[in-house]
From TrEMBL:
GO biological process, one term: anaerobic respiration
Lineage: Bacteria, Bacillati, Actinomycetota, Actinomycetes, Streptosporangiales
Protein name, entry field: Hydrogenase expression protein HypE
Record keyword Signal present: yes
Keyword terms of this UniProt record: 3Fe-4S, 4Fe-4S, Iron, Iron-sulfur, Metal-binding, Oxidoreductase, Signal
Signal peptide interval: none
Naturally occurring in which organism (per UniProt): Actinomadura barringtoniae
Family stated for the protein in its record: Belongs to the [NiFe]/[NiFeSe] hydrogenase small subunit family.
Length: 341
């Protein structure tokens, strides 16, 4: 791979992983293969602009916090308007700093003048007006996720809840949410790739659904891409793990969840929750996790559909059995025939 020429314009990517976050989406991105992050960074795909990525996960810059050689200085430069264009990736949910008595919920580097921590929310306030596009990576950043469960003390929320669902960047782009807990690696790398092409004028506007997800990645349900869907259709459900049958009775939410993981796999096309025996817990959905708990119980709405599928499936399997026996044998005439004369 050859990086684009030095004189081509640079797009900066600033990554804040200091929301309420476990860094799972950063880890996930290292596993992307279509495209890989190496291909994006080294310009291994046609038409890519030079990308300068400021990602805590792999950054090598040292230097004292706030000094000219420090990693965090890139963020101060963006804040001073010295980086343009830049894409802002946010990982983790944003706590509500106004609802605590003292201290702070989460921060990212220090203010060089005061030495005080800069909260994650303040970074969003500073950088959002200057960013060309904001990507919410992972469900926490998109919709609040696990940290925003009912009863949490932090008031955690996703980036669209923090900035407003109709927020648009100075370039007119809405927030782009790539949910998943963690995000499916290629979904994120492909979205970054799309937006790099878009900010350099090479693609039309990214198509998003009502929850700001890339429409082509989240347009179908888990169930529609699941390896086990044939068992569901035939009314064959398992009530224990270790079976190849449909997992809906042990808690799979796949029929109503928008996610392409069973089709795309997890790494290099391999894996994909129900395909490999794990129930779908709906981690890409705005209501995750509260609306889908307790996780190991059969979804309430599944009782009627599995009853209908069970009745229909019994009949279909019987009829299919008859057809299968007929087609699972050679035609009569493919035998040595005894001479008749
Ligand atoms: Fe971690 Fe999941 Fe939140 Fe990503 S969405 S930061 S993987 S808890
Ligand atoms: Fe649908 Fe889940 Fe059953 Fe797969 S395991 S067929 S996604 S209900
Ligand atoms: Fe999350 Fe379900 Fe997709 Fe797995 S299949 S990644 S649990 S939404």
């Amino acid at each position: 791979m050859t990086a684009p020429p030095e004189d081509e314009p640079v797009v900066h990517l600033l990554w804040i992983n200091a929301g309420l976050s476990c860094d799972g989406d950063s880890v996930a991105l290292t596993a992307a293969t279509q495209p890989s992050i190496e291909e994006i960074l080294l310009g291994g795909l046609p038409g890519l602009p030079r990308l300068d990525m400021h990602w805590p996960f792999l950054a090598s810059e040292g230097g004292p916090d706030g000094g000219p050689d420090s990693f965090i200085e890139w963020f101060h430069r963006a804040d001073r308007g010295e980086l343009d264009p830049f894409m802002l990736v946010v990982e983790g949910s944003i706590p509500d700093e106004s609802i605590k008595d003292e201290g702070y919920w989460c921060s990212f580097g220090n203010d060089p003048e005061t030495g005080e921590p800069i909260t994650t929310g303040e970074w969003l306030d500073r950088l959002a007006p200057k960013a060309t596009v904001i990507i919410a990576a992972g469900t926490c950043s998109a919709y609040g996720g696990i940290h925003a469960m009912a009863g949490n003390p932090t008031g955690a929320m996703g980036v669209p809840d923090y900035l407003g669902w109709d927020w648009t960047s100075k370039a007119g782009l809405p927030i782009v949410c790539v949910p998943g807990c963690p995000v499916q690696p290629d979904n994120l790398s492909e979205t970054i790739l799309y937006l790099l092409y878009q900010v350099t004028g090479q693609t039309p506007a990214i198509p998003l659904d009502d929850n700001l997800r890339p429409a082509w990645l989240f347009g179908e349900t888990v169930h529609e891409g699941c390896d086990r869907a044939g068992y569901y259709e035939q009314g064959q459900f398992t009530t224990e793990y270790g079976s190849p049958r449909c997992l809906v009775k042990v808690g799979c939410w796949g029929p109503v969840v928008k996610c392409n993981v069973p089709k795309r796999g997890w790494i290099n096309g391999i894996g994909g929750c129900p395909n490999v025996g794990g129930i779908c817990i709906a981690c890409t959905m705005p209501g995750f996790p509260d609306r889908f708990m307790p996780f190991m119980d059969e979804p309430a709405g599944a009782k009627v559909s599995t009853l209908a599928s069970g009745l229909y499936g019994d009949l279909i399997r019987t009829l299919r059995g008859i057809t299968q026996r007929a087609v699972d044998s050679e035609p009569e005439w493919r035998r040595r025939r005894r001479a008749t004369h």
